Amino acid sequence: MLVSCSLRRSFVLTHSIDQSSAANAAVTFDFHFRSLVPADGGALHALVAACQPLDANSLYCNLLQCSHFGSTSIGAFNPSNCLVGSITGYRIPERAETLFVWQVAVHPAMRGRRLGSDMLHRLVQSLNSCSATDSGAPPVRYIETSITLGNEASIRLFAGFAKACATPISRSVLFDKTEHFASTHDTEYLFRIGPLQSESFDEITSTGEIS
Question: Where in 4-125 does DSSP place strands (E)?
Fold first, then answer.
């Protein structure tokens, strides 16, 4: 389980009460964060479907993510225990010090609140805290993810994370549009962040800023 699952973060979400009017209201949410479990599979499936341009996976795939990789993933839940944000990922088998982030999903109503950055920092901090007491799991020193160039929000998220950690970020082709996708999908670029230095990472707050 995430060691940070009991931590909570409050922020104000501004949204329209009535789609037909210009009236807005401020509602305070108190979020909690924890690892994903099999029972979250359906909610994860619905969340990803609401988060274009993310590629939708089958429900079975999301159930497997929550079952096999739940401990290397994180969910953000509102006071009604609804899943409103998630990061799914796994340690690469041959390189256990590398966390591959599969998808970052933030419900449209929650965007612009740094929830993606918050989850990413909490996830890495949690994995590294667990590594300190589990000799079989090395600390996370690298993060990898694949992003299409059209997904500017994800690029900003990971570039911002690298900047906050004062560590390099590189980009290379992972799966080519023509060679691998037969022109049915844009090229997926591999973004690699690291090495992460534990002494500098510990100084980063959950908002992604140096304290």
Answer: 8-16, 24-34, 74-77, 83-92, 95-106
Angle between helices 41-49 and 59-68 (to 10 degrees): 130
Give the mean model confidence (pLDDT) for residues 13-32.
Answer: 42
How many alpha carbons fall within 13 Å on the CB side of residue 150? 8
The one-letter amino acid at 86:
S
Higher pLDDT, 23 or 33: 33
Q: Which residue has the tokens 């922020």?
A: 11
**In degrees, to the nearest 5, what angle opens at C-alpha 73 toward C-alphas 6 and 154?**
110
62 vs 132, more confident: 62
- What's the token pair of residue 48? 């990803």
For domain 8-17+31-201, the CATH superfamily is: Gcn5-related N-acetyltransferase (GNAT) (3.40.630.30)
CB 188 within 8 A of CB 146: yes
At 29 the pLDDT is 60
For 68, the 3-state DSSP assignment is helix
The more confidently predicted of residues 207 and 151 is: 151
CA 50, CA 159: separation in Å to the nearest integer? 24
pTM of the model: 0.80
